[in-house]
Amino acid sequence: MNMETRYELGKLNCFLWSDFFVAVVTIYIKPAVLTYVVGGAILLAAIPFLLAIAVGMVAWYGAVALLILLFVFVAS
What we know:
The chain crosses the membrane at residues 41-74. The chain is 93% helix and 0% strand.
């Protein structure tokens, strides 16, 4: 058996085990709970991106606010 065949069989074996795991989890856990778990995982994964967007917005609008205040105090 050459290496390419062993590699292909290994990929197939990994796919079958992951498929089996998903099937068992789906059968033994209620689908609603599974939906909440997946949704929670997606939200947790999105937190760094949301924080980066929030920091960027604060920096942008904070800079605009500082420019407005600077203009108001210098002009008066």
